[in-house]
Amino acid sequence: MTPGEIRRLYYIISVFLSYGLDELIPKTRFAIPLRLWRKCLFWLSDKHAGQPLGERLRLALEQLGPVWIKFGQLMSTRRDLFPPNIADQLAMLQDRVAPFDGHKAQQQIELSLGQPVSAVFDNFEVKPLASASIAQVHTATLRENGREVVIKVIRPDIVPVIKADMKLIYRLARWVPRLLHDGRRLRPLEVVADYEKTLLDELNLLREAANAIQLRRNFEDSKMLYVPEVFPDYCSENMLVMERIYGIPISDLVALEQHGVNLKLLAERGVQVFFTQVFRDSFFHADMHPGNIFVSYEHPEDPQYIGIDCGIVGSLNKEDKRYLAENFIAFFNRDYRRVAELHVDSGWVPPDTNVEDFEFSIRTVCEPIFEKPLAEISFGHVLLNLFNTARRFNMEVQPQLVLLQKTLLYVEGVGRQLYPQLDLWKTAKPFLENWIKEQIGLPAVLRALKDKAPFWAEKLPELPELFYDSLRQHKLLQHSVDKLANDLRIERTRHSQSRYLFGVGATLLLSGTGILLQRPGLDLFPALLIAGGIVCWLVGWRRTE
């Protein structure tokens, strides 16, 4: 460790201990050295003893800065690992910090542009419009077309802090399997690596620009979602320029009601947008917390979402999408046997899992939930209960599902806030059933043929030549196989003869030696037997070459 890393580590430890987070050290024999070490740091006392543990953890992460705030947000999505009193507090983490000097932001913008701000923008506002842990936003007007834009700028000197903190988080993650009896199942290093990738992706605003362009194209001319236009000619790794939008924050229910927004339709469209992104596009906005969602002022009776901040996106492969959709449908139908089989087929639980026991455990957890009206059942929490149950059957953490799980909880929370009677099941089930039919029915076959048609049209003129080459290759291959089979047959014959000659030679040698031992002296017959045995061995040995 460098001196700077040591100082940072000491600061982190002092913050944790000042909030009494040594309470989280597990009481196992492997953690005894940690507890003894804690007692040695007697000058770092708990200064917040009267506050609940979850609140102390949240405050400590806020004090430590962006890496730890975002890590806390990630942990808040893992309700299968943390009790509600901790998970609820972590979910309250706000990604807001004090802004840095606007003149420094201007200098950074000019460095990225390679020219003064006034050469590209008019009405540049030095005071930031908003500030977050990684970047802050300023407003301006593009000189070339008069469009109002926002300029997102990465905080200066944040990369070394993030990299230093990530090294420490990796060190802590390596200790998890040693401190917890099921630590390996949690795959802490993979979770931290996935988190680091997400964090570093957010630092590259060119990636965010590309994500926003892709999401805008996916929902072009859509009534459900609008994504602001990005101006890529002015973007760089440290700066993003995009259209400025005006909308009602999704969390401002009073303003939505005053504007006459159809809240029921708005809530249902939130669910539809999420499932469309996941299952139609395999590309979903994975940071859909209320701060990133607005509602257009236009057409309140036919409301449209506005989504910003596309720094974090997620995707699922074809197999995970199909298994997930079938899992949801099986839940809708209370087909717990199918849920258990899908978990085994997908590899989410070990292949030797007892399906009957797994099915019974899922039924035990889920049947009491389904006794409630569907409108009162939390879709996200059913998924969490499923993962909790699967945990007892050695289900490993699936990093590709972490972002999806977090986003689903966000979407459901926003939907229920807008319209408490939202029946998410009723909204989602038809969508998933139609998607499954499209994947395995006649439409899927026709779509595959349509997708492959240009390829086959290109290859069609080459088919006669390819057919001839195939026949020729087959003939050559058959000749090679016949030759190889003949060589093997000859080799087996030689080895068989060799073994026979070795056997005859051994018999002659033993016989000649036995006669000599019984009748010592010169005798021609045993000598001939011995000589014949040696000759047989020599001939047999030559045949093995």
UniProtKB/TrEMBL annotation:
Pathway where this protein functions: Cofactor biosynthesis; ubiquinone biosynthesis [regulation]
Similarity-based family: Belongs to the ABC1 family. UbiB subfamily.
Pfam families per record: ABC1 (PF03109)
E.C. numbers: 2.7.-.-
Localization annotation: Cell membrane
Name of this chain's protein: Probable protein kinase UbiB
Catalytic machinery residues: 287
Role description: Is probably a protein kinase regulator of UbiI activity which is involved in aerobic coenzyme Q (ubiquinone) biosynthesis.
Organism: Izhakiella capsodis
Binding annotation for ATP: 129-137, 152
Record-annotated ABC1 atypical kinase-like domain positions: 93-343
Gene name of the record: ubiB
